[in-house]
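Hello again, I could really use a second opinion on something today. I've been staring at a protein lately and its backbone has me curious. Please have a think about how the structure follows from the sequence. I owe you a coffee for this, so here goes:
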Amino acid sequence: MSTASVILLGCLGVIVFDALAALLSRTTSLRYVWFAPGSFVIYAVTGYFAADASGSVVVGAAAGAVAATVDATLGSIIGKGLQGEFEPVAPRLEAAGAAFAITVGALAGVAAGYLAAG
């Protein structure tokens, strides 16, 4: 599988996960934030397979960061649109949360990329 395909699947995976998490959050009254570890796993898996496909840990880090960026933007919009259990957050804190998610995505991609590199 090509690196681009891996990244695309990771992005689609995180969008689907966000939609399911929002629906579960709404129906069970669990806070949406409790589903964040699932997103982190998707970042790592995306980074692992991208690094494996490309042979580059840097590509793994970038792939994890791309999946996290999609999560922090489209995933957030989808989650809010499906009315998941969100805490009210000031816009600057929302931006900080997005930056944190992207950083975690890159770090997860690096860690998983090293595993893929053997």
Observations:
- The chain has a mean pLDDT of 91.
- The radius of gyration is 14 Å.
